[in-house]
């Protein structure tokens, strides 16, 4: 503790006045006791008056304690009240049973020994009551319920009166421990009995003293116990002085009763004062709660008006809350936000008329404003008069602002810090309350919620019209901007920028690097267009540019060329070292309004067609839309749509061309050839749609259908002839697709007699990959044929390594034999190589008997061509196969 605190602290604790009074009264009674027997005979009627006064005081004490019990019904209060009632009844009995003054007659003519019995009852009864009171007070005593309290008091009074009456009645017989010893008109109690009473009263007095006094009631009880102990002690010390001790005890009882009455009345008055104070506080709290509920009700009504836009809603909130901040004072609400080191005014509820510095959009250095305190503390702050607070006197604006009362709070919306403040030109007498702070914070939460909704709406709106990767407008925004320009009749050109072979960038560098390149491409294009032009990402690796105000074709070409220069240098990838870059090129297609299209969609589609033209011409260039290629573009688009629907409509069919053994004419196999039964164009050969389907990645489903149909259609033919083999063709796309082997395995074990034809050019693209696929096909049970042999650039070393079964000689060579010596030499060389490697040879395109005879003589055993049969349907081939087999059997029979 500091020295000053020690010096200023009181040396002794404060002693209650009733304790000092009790001590003085006890000292007076104790000092006057030895002389009481000399003085009392001369007092005359004063003695009865003192006894009656003591009894009346005890009855008054009983009445006050009952009133106290009614206010706070506790068992200890009831026990003490009944104790004083019992003592009062005993005192009245004593006063009427003996002559208190020599020469006088008692009021009630009863045996004198009753007084001695009454002393014993008084001593024991008061000691027992005091002991019970202290024990009840020491525990965690609870108040009784009203009904329970009335029952307890009624029964306790009845028991006390009954016990006292019985005790008095029992005291009438003579004898017993109360032996009359006359000293004049008085009596004494035997020393033995007095000694026991002294021990009991002394023990209870010590117990009461150690429990300590909490109020005047406890102090009065302690005083009464001291009087009782003094009474019994004087009786033991000097029986002749008992009369003086007795009267002295009555004086002490009178004082004790007086203190108990005073304490009880003091408690009642204190409770009354506390009740009035609580009533006042409850009234104030009720007023505050009602005012706060009106505030919240107003805000709730505002929140339930969705028709209000954000600006109107915030102004309405400021208007209503300003009038509710402090009744009788006009406040002005302002919303500002933190922008760097400035506070920017967003909304001002008519406060600019008083303070011009608070106009909407005004910027104030935050260090010069009171919101700096809000930002520093991070919670609600208020001042009833800003000009009288030294803690904010250093703020420059405080000295010049017209506002006096101020309350405000900070709040956050996303990363932005906002401030809600209410100010008044009139100062407040009292400080802002905690309810005022809570209300301002609730208003701030309303404003924050609405501002957060606005931020989220702006974010969603931005996301709906912007590309999330590049931040550029997306296709929707691009369409809206283009349609608006066309509707206004402004000159407009539309350029579509398509990055060449961007899939290779994804596969080589990964998607993260590819995305970084797209971001760089978008920024480079945006940096090379004129002000007002719109750059958008249309999807994937395609960008669109609206060239506004395109005055002429030369102007458009100059602007497109500038865009194309963006691809002259490699693009960065955002790597940590900044060293990695990826070179890419782009094909640009341009369409000009209105000659290339009256509407935006038509203009965009024709720019796409121009992009296709640029790619067909070698990529890395730009091209204007040419109407001459529009028909081809539309046909390609229509063909793509029709191909997508052909499988669903079951428009594809298989035709079959036989493989014949030249020497005997026996049909040893068949090649399945796809045809398209187009609903408008008729029967189309593979050359009319297969290259297109392969280019547009649509051949996989078609090839799977061909494989299934070949297996299904040839099932009967293969069953009749175990050596019969049905062949189907596989494209380059299918050969590199793992789904090919998986689809074959799904067909089960019905692959005996099935073969796959692979063209030489496809097989030699990636020999290692081809070898892996061919090995898997052979493992599935399929034979392998190398089609169109001689047209590619096969290496004989690779040919030897390929696990093939059949080599098919291309029709370009068989067409010239036997007349063309060059074709004849090639055919003979192919047959020789195939024979040496153990391959079976099949010659394609055999149309004459002479070609067949030459091929047989050169060592080729099998042929396929119009000389034997044209491609035919499955039903026609079945009939052809029966006739051929019958003819072979007939020829064999004739030879036999």
Put the structure in a nutshell:
This protein has 896 residues and is an alpha/beta fold.
Task: Walk me through the structure.
The chain has 31 helices and 22 strands. The protein is elongated and about 180 Å long. By secondary structure, it is α/β, with parallel strands linked by helices. The strands form 4 sheets. An 8-stranded mixed beta barrel has the order 14-15-17-18-19-20-21-22, surrounded by 5 helices. A 6-stranded antiparallel β-sheet has the order 3-2-1-6-5-4, sandwiched between helices. The longest helix has 62 residues, at 242-303. α5 (113-138) runs parallel beside α7.
* Alpha carbon gap, first and last residue: 139 Å
Class computed from helices, strands and strand pairing: alpha/beta
Tell me the total number of β-strands. Answer: 22
The biggest beta sheet reads: 8 strands, mixed, barrel
Low-confidence stretches: 1-15, 174-188, 239-243
Question: Mind sketching the topology for me?
Answer:
Elements: H1 3-8, H2 17-39, H3 46-71, H4 75-97, H5 113-138, H6 146-170, H7 191-211, H8 216-237, H9 242-303, H10 310-325, E1 332-339, E2 342-348, E3 363-365, H11 371-377, E4 381-383, H12 396-400, E5 405-413, E6 416-424, H13 434-465, H14 475-487, E7 492-499, H15 502-509, H16 511-526, E8 534-539, E9 542-548, H17 553-564, E10 571-572, E11 581-582, E12 586-593, H18 600-616, E13 622-624, H19 630-649, E14 652-661, E15 667-678, E16 682-684, H20 690-695, H21 699-713, H22 715-720, E17 725-729, H23 732-735, H24 739-746, E18 754-759, H25 760-763, H26 767-779, E19 783-789, H27 796-801, E20 806-809, H28 811-814, H29 821-837, E21 840-844, H30 849-858, E22 862-864, H31 874-895
Parallel strand pairs: 12-13, 15-17, 17-18, 18-19, 19-20, 20-21, 21-22
Antiparallel strand pairs: 1-2, 1-6, 2-3, 4-5, 5-6, 7-9, 7-12, 8-9, 10-11, 14-15, 14-22, 15-16
């Amino acid at each position: 503790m500091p020295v000053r605190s020690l010096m200023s602290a009181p040396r002794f604790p404060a002693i209650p006045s009733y304790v000092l009074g009790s001590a003085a009264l006890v000292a007076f009674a104790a000092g006057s006791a030895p002389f009481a027997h000399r003085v009392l005979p001369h007092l005359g009627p004063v003695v009865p008056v003192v006894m009656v006064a003591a009894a009346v005081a005890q009855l008054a004490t009983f009445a006050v304690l009952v009133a106290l019990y009614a206010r706070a019904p506790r068992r200890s209060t009831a026990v003490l009240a009944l104790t004083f009632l019992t003592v009062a009844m005993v005192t009245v009995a004593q006063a009427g049973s003996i002559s208190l003054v020599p020469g006088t007659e008692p009021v009630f003519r009863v045996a004198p020994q009753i007084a001695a019995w009454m002393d014993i009852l008084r001593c024991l009864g008061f000691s027992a009551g005091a002991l019970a009171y202290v024990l009840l007070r020491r525990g965690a005593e609870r108040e009784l319920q009203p009904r329970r309290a009335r029952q307890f008091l009624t029964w306790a009074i009845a028991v006390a009166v009954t016990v006292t009456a019985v005790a008095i009645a029992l005291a009438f017989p003579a004898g017993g421990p109360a032996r009359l010893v006359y000293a004049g008109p008085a009596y004494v109690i035997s020393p033995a009995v007095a000694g026991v009473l002294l021990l009991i009263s002394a023990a209870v007095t010590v117990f009461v003293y150690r429990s300590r006094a909490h109020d005047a009631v406890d102090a009065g009880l302690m005083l009464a116990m001291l009087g009782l102990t003094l009474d019994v002690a004087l009786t033991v010390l000097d029986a002749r002085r008992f009369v003086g001790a007795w009267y002295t005890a009555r004086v002490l009882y009178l004082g004790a009763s007086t203190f108990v009455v005073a304490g009880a009345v003091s408690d009642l008055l204190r409770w009354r004062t506390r009740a009035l104070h609580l009533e006042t506080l409850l009234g104030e709290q009720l007023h505050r709660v009602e005012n706060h509920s009106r505030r919240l009700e107003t805000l709730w009504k505002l929140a339930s008006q969705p028709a209000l836009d954000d600006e109107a809603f915030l102004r309405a909130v400021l208007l209503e809350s300003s009038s509710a901040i402090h009744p009788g004072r006009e406040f002005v609400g302002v919303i500002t936000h933190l922008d760097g080191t400035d506070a920017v005014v967003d909304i001002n509820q008519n406060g600019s008329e008083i303070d011009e510095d608070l106009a909407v959009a005004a910027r104030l250095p935050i260090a010069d404003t009171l919101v700096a305190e809000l930002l520093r503390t991070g919670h609600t702050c208020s001042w009833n008069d800003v000009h009288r607070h030294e803690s904010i006197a250093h703020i420059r604006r405080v000295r010049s602002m017209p506002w006096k009362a101020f309350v405000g709070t900070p709040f956050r919306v996303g990363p932005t810090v906002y401030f809600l403040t209410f100010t008044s030109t009139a100062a407040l007498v009292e400080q802002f309350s905690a309810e005022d702070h809570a209300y301002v914070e609730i208003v701030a939460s309303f404003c924050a919620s609405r501002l957060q909704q606005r931020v989220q709406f702006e974010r969603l709106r931005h996301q709906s019209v912007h590309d999330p990767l590049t931040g550029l407008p997306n296709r929707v925004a691009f369409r809206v901007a283009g349609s608006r320009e066309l509707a206004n009749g402004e000159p407009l050109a539309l350029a579509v920028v398509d990055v060449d072979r961007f899939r290779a960038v994804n596969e080589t560098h990964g998607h993260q690097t590819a995305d970084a390149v797209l971001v760089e491409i978008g920024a480079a294009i945006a940096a090379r267009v004129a002000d007002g032009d719109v750059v958008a990402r249309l999807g994937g690796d395609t960008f669109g540019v609206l060239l506004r105000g395109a005055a002429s074709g030369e102007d458009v070409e100059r602007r497109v060329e500038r865009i194309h220069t963006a691809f002259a240098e490699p693009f960065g990838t955002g790597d940590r070292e900044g060293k990695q870059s990826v070179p890419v090129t782009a094909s640009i297609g341009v369409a000009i309004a209105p000659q290339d299209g009256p509407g935006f969609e038509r203009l965009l589609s024709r720019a796409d067609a121009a992009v296709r033209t640029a790619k067909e011409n070698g990529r890395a260039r730009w091209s204007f839309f040419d109407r001459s290629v529009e028909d081809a573009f539309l046909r390609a688009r229509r063909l793509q749509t029709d191909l997508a629907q052909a499988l669903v409509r079951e428009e594809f069919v298989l035709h079959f061309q036989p493989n014949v053994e030249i020497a005997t004419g026996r049909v040893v196999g068949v090649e399945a050839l796809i045809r398209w039964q187009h609903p408008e164009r008729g029967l189309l050969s593979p050359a009319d749609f297969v290259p297109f389907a392969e280019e547009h990645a649509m051949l996989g489903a078609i090839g799977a259908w061909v494989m299934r149909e070949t297996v299904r259609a040839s099932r009967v033919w293969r069953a009749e002839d175990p050596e019969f083999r049905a062949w189907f063709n596989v494209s380059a796309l299918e050969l590199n697709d793992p789904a090919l082997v998986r689809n074959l395995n799904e067909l089960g074990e019905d692959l005996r007699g099935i073969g796959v034809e692979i063209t030489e050019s496809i097989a030699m693209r990636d020999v290692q990959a081809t070898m892996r696929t061919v090995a898997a096909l052979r493992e599935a049970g399929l034979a392998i044929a190398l089609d169109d042999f001689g047209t590619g650039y096969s290496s004989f070393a690779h040919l030897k390594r390929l696990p093939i079964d059949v080599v098919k000689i291309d029709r370009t060579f068989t067409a010239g034999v036997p007349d063309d010596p060059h074709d004849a030499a090639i055919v003979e060389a192919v047959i020789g190589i195939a024979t040496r490697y153990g391959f079976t040879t099949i010659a394609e395109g055999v149309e004459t008997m002479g070609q067949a005879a030459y091929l047989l003589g050169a060592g080729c055993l099998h042929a396929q061509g119009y000389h034997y049969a044209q491609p035919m349907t499955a039903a026609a081939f079945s009939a052809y196969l029966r006739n051929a087999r019958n003819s072979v059997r007939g020829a064999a029979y004739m030879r036999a």
